[in-house]
């Protein structure tokens, strides 16, 4: 790129020029496209790259992950309920066993794969012990004191315990014996899709409303902006809840509710941009060659406002994810057996004391997503408009 | 100024009116009457009930009745709990929610200002990094995740604070943090950036050159101006705290307004949803109104339009 004209590269503006160069007096670099320029500034900031990376990782997990799991989000196995990703295993009588919080005995194979529950023969509630029979081998579970222990046929207490990784369910199983990982993938997918569609719906409404308002100006603008003012004083959370009650919980309900509420900010941003753009000469030029208003708006004005629109959009997505999780949490979200990250959190609430991982995993994903989108939005804003940098 | 106040009042009333109509019509558009249940009332009883609550009339007539009741401060009866009115829910729940809300506001202001100021004054150093780290975490963690994490750490692991209840002051600590966390982080970031901007102004240099101590420069000259943007976001912050309380109250089982609202939603108790929405909305709109007027009084540079 630099060699052709002898023009210094902007990445190394103080580099030595060739001795005989036609362009010795020329100050500047090869012209870059807007996108390349933005990318150059974007990648300089560690946090924006981190944000982009987080979003990519979670999206891969959500959309590609399901091809590599053995279970679907609704497969359930009531034998394996609430089994954490890491657990205590007891070696007893030549076999490896795990005692669940529900006092079931689970046989383990190859150091961590679950291979079925052991048959319970009898239980003595008073002495807090239970007798199990594993293929003719007698095992006694003693749950009178924590940690629970296991005795073999001759009454010898098993000494060696070890922590093993759950090979069947790498992220554990939930309270109905479903694979947490498959459900997390599914939940992340639902949350992302809901947030993206809602953000896109807001984008369309907001851009349309804002651009028409700014382009028409005058009394149309005044009326449209009064509408925006009124909507922005409405408590939006309440409004979303009302729509959800009205439409009934479900995917469409949530998308409609979120998609029709948060466009006000977008409309304001777009209006501001277009107001400042519409007096420019290129608009006049376009009008002189006879372009219609629609063409001017769609071909000239909106593309020029794309930077701020994109930034507002990336900031809208985490808001939608938050709101979806919030709605699911208060019982207005995705109905069972479907899952979103919010419903998974709210399902896990009851098991917080015994199986906290069921809450931590979806909560971690929500945080990673909002983190990612916030960082990326910040980075994009800085990259698109360096003047705005704080 | 007066014109602005009048305009804002008119706007608020218009918004309230739109919201009441919208809420009412939406709740009435849902199929099924309030007395259609599987218990099966006898037709004469149902007719009498419909007569009593004007349910036989057209929606517009019902709306007029509802508005009339609203003007007297009567939000109607609950369709799910016998003998309870929506007003009962509000009078029993408001003290708890109000205490929680006030505690959260105080917590937010008491923590965000020092954090933001520290970060701005130590710009670029580890204190700044630490505060910004906390603030970034704060704005990305949803309140229900924060609440449950707090319960897990402080109630289950460390066992020093109760998980629920509004019976003692200790029960308010975790809900306050969970509720105020987001706003605290948001405000700390805002205060940091606005103070950074102010500290670069000429009048700060002038103040320093007069020989005033740095402490006085910050508190008397810089902070006063730096806090103006904070007042603008106080309205939305209060709104955030108020709606955030739905989740926080139900997680910590506090008998506040939020829990009635959430249980109203899950019981499909339409009068309660309607009444609570209107109550919340009035409250919020009033707060935003007061904050806006206050803002104009504080900053004479603002345009009244």
Total E-strand runs of chain A = 9
Strand order of the largest sheet of chain A: 4-3-2-1-9
Indicate the structural class of chain A: alpha+beta
Describe the biggest sheet of chain A? 5 strands, antiparallel
Number of domain modules of chain A: 2
CATH topology of the largest domain in chain A: MetI-like fold
Description:
The complex is a heterodimer of chains A (390) and B (305). Chain A is an alpha+beta fold. Chain A has twelve helices and nine strands. Chain A folds into two domains: 86-165, no CATH class; 180-388, MetI-like (MetI-like fold). Chain A has helices at residues 34-44, 46-63, 180-216, 218-233, 236-247, 251-259, 263-277, 281-288, 293-304, 306-329, 341-348, 357-384; strands at residues 86-92, 95-99, 105-109, 113-117, 119-124, 129-134, 137-142, 149-152, 161-165. In chain A, the strands form two sheets. Chain A has a five-stranded antiparallel β-sheet with strand order 4-3-2-1-9, with no helix packed on it. A four-stranded antiparallel β-sheet of chain A has the order 5-6-7-8, with no helix packed on it. Chain A starts with 33 loop residues before the first helix and ends in a 6-residue tail after the last helix. Chain B is mainly alpha-helical and 305 residues long. Chain B has a domain at 104-254: MetI-like (MetI-like fold), CATH 1.10.3720. The longest helix of chain B has 36 residues, at 86-121. The termini of chain B are close together. The model of chain B has no long low-confidence stretch (mean pLDDT 80). Chain A binds chain B through residues 229-230, 233-235, 237-238, 241-243, 245-246, 318, 322, 325-326, 329-332, 345-346, 349, 352-353, 356, 359, 363, 366-367, 370-371, 374, 390, and chain B through 11-12, 14-15, 18-19, 22-23, 26-27, 29-30, 136, 139-145, 148-149, 151-152, 156, 193, 196-197, 239, 242-243, 246-247, 250-251, 262, 265-266, 268, 270, 273, 277, 280-281, 284-285, 288.
């Amino acid at each position: 790129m630099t060699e052709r004209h002898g023009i210094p590269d902007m990445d190394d503006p103080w580099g030595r020029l060739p001795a005989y160069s036609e362009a010795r007096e020329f100050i500047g670099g090869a012209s870059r496209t807007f996108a390349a320029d933005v990318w150059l500034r974007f990648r300089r900031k560690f946090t924006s790259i981190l944000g982009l990376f987080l979003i990519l990782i979670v999206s891969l997990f959500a959309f590609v992950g399901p091809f590599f799991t053995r279970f679907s989000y609704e497969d359930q196995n009531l034998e394996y309920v609430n089994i954490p990703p890491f657990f205590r295993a007891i070696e007893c009588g030549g076999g490896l066993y795990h005692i669940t919080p529900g006092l079931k005995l689970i046989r383990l194979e190859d150091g961590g794969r679950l291979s079925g529950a052991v048959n319970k023969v009898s239980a003595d509630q008073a002495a807090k012990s239970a007798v199990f029979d594993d293929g003719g081998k007698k095992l006694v579970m003693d749950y009178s004191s924590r940690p629970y222990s296991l005795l073999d046929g001759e009454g010898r207490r098993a000494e060696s315990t070890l922590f093993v990784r759950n090979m069947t369910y790498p992220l554990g199983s939930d309270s109905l014996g479903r694979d947490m990982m498959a459900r997390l993938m599914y939940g992340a997918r639902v949350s992302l899709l809901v947030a993206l569609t809602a953000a896109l719906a807001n984008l369309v409404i907001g851009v349309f409303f804002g651009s028409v308002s700014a382009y028409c100006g005058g009394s149309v603008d005044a009326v449209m902006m009064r509408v925006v003012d009124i909507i922005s004083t409405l408590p939006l959370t309440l409004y979303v809840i009302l729509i959800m009650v009205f439409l009934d919980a479900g995917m469409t309900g949530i998308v409609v509710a979120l998609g029709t509420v948060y466009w006000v900010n977008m409309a304001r941003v777009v209006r501001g941009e277009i107001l400042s753009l519409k007096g420019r000469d290129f608009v006049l030029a376009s009008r002189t060659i006879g372009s219609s208003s629609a063409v001017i708006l769609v071909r000239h004005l909106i593309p020029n406002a794309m930077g701020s629109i994109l930034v507002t959009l990336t900031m809208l997505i985490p808001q939608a994810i938050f709101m979806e999780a919030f709605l699911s949490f208060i019982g207005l979200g995705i109905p069972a057996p479907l899952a979103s990250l919010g419903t998974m959190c709210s399902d896990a609430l009851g098991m917080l004391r015994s199986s906290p991982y069921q809450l931590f995993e979806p909560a971690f994903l929500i945080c990673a997503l909002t983190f990612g989108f916030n960082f990326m939005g910040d980075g994009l804003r800085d990259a698109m408009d360096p003047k705005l940098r704080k | 100024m007066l014109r602005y106040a009048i305009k804002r009042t008119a706007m608020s009333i218009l918004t309230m009116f739109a919201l009441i109509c919208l809420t009412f019509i939406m709740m009435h558009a849902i199929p099924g009457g309030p007395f259609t249940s599987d218990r099966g009332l006898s037709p004469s009883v149902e007719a009498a009930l419909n007569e009593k609550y004007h349910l036989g009339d057209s929606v517009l007539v019902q709306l007029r009745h509802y508005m009339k009741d609203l003007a007297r401060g009567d939000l109607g009866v609950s369709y799910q709990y016998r003998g309870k009115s929506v007003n009962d829910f509000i009078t029993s729940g408001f003290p708890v929610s109000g205490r929680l809300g006030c505690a959260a506001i105080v917590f937010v202001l008491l923590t965000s200002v020092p954090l933001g100021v520290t970060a701005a004054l130590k710009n670029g150093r580890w204190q700044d990094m630490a505060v910004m780290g906390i603030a970034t975490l704060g704005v990305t963690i949803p309140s229900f995740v924060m609440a449950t994490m707090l319960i897990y750490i402080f109630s289950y692991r460390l066992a020093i604070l109760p998980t629920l209840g509004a019976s003692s002051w200790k029960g308010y600590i975790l809900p306050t943090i969970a509720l105020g966390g987001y706003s605290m982080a948001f405000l700390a970031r805002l205060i940091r950036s606005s103070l950074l901007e102010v500290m670069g102004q000429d009048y700060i240099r002038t103040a320093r050159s007069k020989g005033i101590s740095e402490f006085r420069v910050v508190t008397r000259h810089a902070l006063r101006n730096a806090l103006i943007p904070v007042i603008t976001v106080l309205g939305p912050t209060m709104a955030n705290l108020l709606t955030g309380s739905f989740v926080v109250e139900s997680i910590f089982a506090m008998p506040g307004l939020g829990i009635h609202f959430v249980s109203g939603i899950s019981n499909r108790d339409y009068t309660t949803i309607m009444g609570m929405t209107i109550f919340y909305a009035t409250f919020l709109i009033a707060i935003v109104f007061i904050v806006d007027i206050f803002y104009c009084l504080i900053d004479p540079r603002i345009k009244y339009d």
